[in-house]
Queue: 2 jobs
Job 1
Amino acid sequence: MTLDASGRSYLVTGGASLIGSHLADVLLEAGAAEVRLLDNYALGTPETVAHLKDHPRVRHLRGDVLKLPDLLQAAQGVDGVFALAGYLTLPMAADPATGLSVNTLGMVNTLEACRFAGARRIVFSSSVAVYGNAADHPMAERTGFVSEGLQPASKLYGASKLIGEGLCARYAAAHGLQYNVLRFASVYGVRQHARAVNAVFVARICDQVRRGEAPVIDGDGSEVHDYVYVTDVARACAQAMLSAAHGHACNIATGVDTTHTEVARTALRLCGRGDLQPVYREDRRAVRSAAGTRLGFTRDLAARELGWEPRVTLEQGMRALLDWQRASA
Ligand SMILES: NC(=O)c1ccc[n+]([C@@H]2O[C@H](COP(=O)([O-])OP(=O)(O)OC[C@H]3O[C@@H](n4cnc5c(N)ncnc54)[C@H](O)[C@@H]3O)[C@@H](O)[C@H]2O)c1
């Protein structure tokens, strides 16, 4: 799908986020007339979007999704809203009261702002956390939430994203607002932060190997995740806004399960450290997402409805992450 956003204005809530910073790049490249990045910098920092500081088509707005007037003002005249503001599992574990408020009441406010500002469409950043501990294989979008065995923060995070999805559907039914929900797998890449429980593993392993240390793995290394590169995710967001299709909840995943050991071996190969080996230690992680040795997220729906396919392999993505870590060290 060719992305043409010329003449359009968009609001991105949580604009100083990992995904928001790349989404802004994609929208500007697609010709958007204006991209408004609203953030209260509770978690993200201005450095994440520093490359857009003086961009003539970007507006940096300090605002809080828990304050409806901030959103009403920011959404004036936009064509669409990307709802990215949110608390991932790690910040949710640290501050569940704020995390739940942002992920649920923040969504109510964002949808109200869409309604009153006349925005046509919202794209909501959900997560494969909405499947919880489901054991379906493959994991398609009809899979239900299984809370059994989840750690508290993962339960709260997955449930809060399900509420966000429900709110989108409710505003579509009641007010005709178009929506697409994107259920991201583990998003990693350049400008990586330490808030995502799975992607932070990739960043830590790259960092260790780059510094000449052996990569340390919690457990036996067989835990798998689906690592999807952030520019692919940003493109999925733009496609979900610009596509004819709406009213869908799509997995945004590669469909490839990668073990922790494979991540470590990829980092060792990319850094030319054949002399090092992964070190396995007892798994004492205080906060974990749903984890197993088989996931198999399908991406047929995103391909069919949005025309989206991932383009960046794990090796390419980790190389970019390593280069960025070196440059920012
Ligand atoms: N990164 C992933 O692996 C991943 C996976 C699945 C889903 N998601 C979802 O995608 C979205 C973006 O992810 P990310 O990794 O880029 O997140 P991030 O943590 O980089 O960014 C979230 C942003 O929201 C902002 N924010 C928090 N509370 C706010 C408030 N009250 N008002 C305004 N802004 C506020 C933070 O300051 C931060 O900049 C999140 O909603 C997340 O739940 C991310």
Note: The chain has a mean pLDDT of 96.
Job 2
Amino acid sequence: MVFLQREASCAICALHSDDAELAAHEVWRDDLWLLRHHPQPAPLTGWCLLDARRHCAGPLDFAPEEAREWGVVVQRASLLVKQVTGCERVYAIAFGEGARHLHLHLIPRSGDDPRTTAWKIADLYRHVEAGKVAAASADCVNDWLQRARAMAPRLLNG
Ligand SMILES: [Zn+2]
């Protein structure tokens, strides 16, 4: 069993203690991982984050149990994003600079949206963050979340 220690200065640890934020955006969790939709402003409907529940910077710092389960949970969470969003591919990107706590971005890549092509996705992210491009609508995100939460137990448990 991995002990879920928290780091006082960490934004992801704080978010994991924020019941209102989790009620708004959490999709699924188990003992090790928490899958959530990107908070507002969300660059795209279906843009998710797969967090380590433990304060852990990334694969370099994995406990053995996290290392064993990582591949399975990343595959299943990516499949959930693909099926609920209807995109062709799902990018998986983790820098861990904004917070030194693993939060893997799972990003829907759609062939009919050129803004989602490779590194153009970073431009989209910055433009939405700066308010230059409209974020995904709250209605679309909420609809996506309802469908994702309904599908998550079948795809992600066990
Ligand atoms: Zn943390």
Note: Residues 64-85 form the longest helix (22 residues).
